[in-house]
Amino acid sequence: MLADEAITLFGGTLPFWPQLDRQQKETLCTGARTVRFTAGQTLGRGERECIGVLIVTAGALRVYLTSDDGREVPLYRLAKNDVCVLSAACVLEHIDFTVSIEAESECSAAVIGAPAFARLCAENVHAELYAYKLAAERFSDVMWAMQQLLFTRFDARLANFLLEERSRTGSPELRFTHELIAKRLGTAREVVSRMLKYFESERCVSLSRGGISICDEAKLHSFCKR
Amino acid sequence: MLADEAITLFGGTLPFWPQLDRQQKETLCTGARTVRFTAGQTLGRGERECIGVLIVTAGALRVYLTSDDGREVPLYRLAKNDVCVLSAACVLEHIDFTVSIEAESECSAAVIGAPAFARLCAENVHAELYAYKLAAERFSDVMWAMQQLLFTRFDARLANFLLEERSRTGSPELRFTHELIAKRLGTAREVVSRMLKYFESERCVSLSRGGISICDEAKLHSFCKR
Q1: What domains can you pick out in chain B, each with its CATH number?
Q2: Would the CB atoms of B94 and A142 count as touching at under 8 Å?
Q3: Which residue of B lies nearest to A138 if distances are taken between CA atoms?
Q4: Would you say B131 and A136 are in contact if contact means Cβ atoms under 8 Å apart?
Q5: Contacts of residue B68 in chain A, CB cutoff 8 Å?
Q6: How many CB atoms sit inside 10 A of residue B44's CB?
Q7: ipTM score here?
Q8: DSSP bridge pairs for B76
Q9: Which residues of B touch A95 (CB under 8 A)?
Q10: Angle A125-151/B125-151 helices, nearest 10 degrees?
């Protein structure tokens, strides 16, 4: 990673940057590297589970829990300029769980390696405080996801997902398989297919091979509120 | 709360205590008050949702999520000397959710009011860092609970609960209604009753009105591992 590029990125995304001394800034810039992920590539499991702090520079990552038998529970997403601190969980003494991270699309990120970040936290209380504040922010994200998953009716969750994707991509034509939606929403494919058919019968969406087209956004929206 | 009592309690439970100046210590001691809760009393909802930091001095609190329609998801328990920081969520800028807190038994706690704690965090970075580290610890507790709830078979969860209570109370005679166990484990009473009957048929427990007696601890333990 070029030093200038690193300074711009860190200065813009890390609020404790002005509170670092010159040596600490240099260490961060020379130590940071760029990683690229292909869509669907997973990271943050096994030997790579504590890779360090990631700053997303393009694309998006999704963060989820995985059970021993491979089931998934979606937690939150990280987009451009979001900072991922749970990929440096080994640095945070009170975080003792591991999340799975997958590139949702082609994605690139700057990585501050775990040892470098650990040194920084030990030296600079502002950096350490930032890491824990960011963990608290993710805690809020997870509680939101948990409430969605446990308390919200599935029609509302699916409608919400479709509308979020519509707004994210800017298009009413969504290219998602039912399988992939199921994975994202932590449910079974059959549950997604059945609900999509119901939405189709209500003329909110029309279904085609490998795609979903939103026909009536307002009506779909009415399901979110139920 | 008596000053000497407060000094002993804070000195023993708050790791940042030695890093406070004399004025800050005095403010904490004179501001702290003792609250008592009866078994089943709830706190942490509505107007009392940001009461401040609680240090449990006797009894136990359980912390859970509540849906709009009254369903509960158990998160974790706090026992003597545990510090509750989510009851001061308004002080933590990145925590935007509210948990419910209920006294599991008769319970007393020292309270550092939210405004006093907010002032302390603004003045002393060690106090602030402690609050966020404690939130991170609770984040780990919640993730554990979430994995239990979503990924663990109910026979294992119930066996685990019974054995934990057996070890906590020191007695194989547990005084719990099926209703109360259901609430604690975030499920329906029928699910608990059915599984308890199954455990009885396996000669792990014997059931009586309002009580469960563990007859074969080793066998009950075998359900935890499945």
Answers
A1: 1-150 (2.60.120.10), 152-224 (1.10.10.10)
A2: no
A3: B94
A4: no
A5: 151
A6: 22
A7: 0.82
A8: B63
A9: 136, 139-140
A10: 30
Structure-token pair, residue A182:
């199921």
Please report the pLDDT score of residue B226 as a whole number: 56
Spatial distance between the Cα atoms of B183 and B191, rounded to a whole number of angstroms = 11
Among the partner-chain residues A97, A126, A151, the one whose CB lies closest to the CB of B67 is A151
What distances in angstroms separate CA A126 from CA A26, A123, B111, one per listed residue?
17, 9, 27
How does strand A107-113 pair with strand A52-58?
antiparallel
Instruction: Determine the pLDDT at residue B148.
Output: 82
Residue with tokens 């005084």: B175
Interface A-B: count of C-beta contacts within 8 A: 97
Which of B95, B134, B149 has its CB closest to that of A140?
A: B95
Contacts of B129 in chain A (CB under 8 A): 125, 128-129, 132
Q: At A115, is the secondary structure helix, strand, or coil?
A: helix
Per-residue confidence band for A46, with pLDDT thresholds at 50, 70 and 90: low
Residue A132 has its nearest CB partner, among B129, B142, B143, at: B129
Of A143, A34, A42, the C-alpha closest to A98 is A42
Residues B23, A165: Cα–Cα separation, whole Å: 53
| pLDDT of A92 over the 80 cut | yes
Question: What is the nearest CA distance from B94 to chain A, expressed in angstroms?
Answer: 5
A10, pLDDT greater than 70:
yes
Q: Which residues of B touch A (CB under 8 A)?
A: 65, 67-69, 71, 73, 92-97, 125-126, 128-129, 132-140, 142-144, 146-147, 149-151
Local confidence pLDDT in tens for the 226 residues of chain B: 778 889 999 999 999 999 999 999 999 998 899 999 999 998 865 545 788 999 999 999 999 998 877 788 889 999 999 999 999 988 998 898 889 999 988 999 999 999 999 999 999 999 999 999 999 999 999 998 888 888 888 899 999 999 999 998 999 999 999 988 998 888 888 889 989 998 998 899 999 887 999 999 999 999 886 5
Q: Amino acid identity of B92?
A: L
* Helix (H) and strand (E) counts in chain A: 8, 11
- Alpha-carbon distance B90 to A186, whole Å? 30
Q: Chain B: residue nearest A94 by CA?
A: B137
The rounded mean pLDDT for chain A is: 90
Within 8 A of B97 by CB-CB distance, chain A residues are 140, 143-144, 147
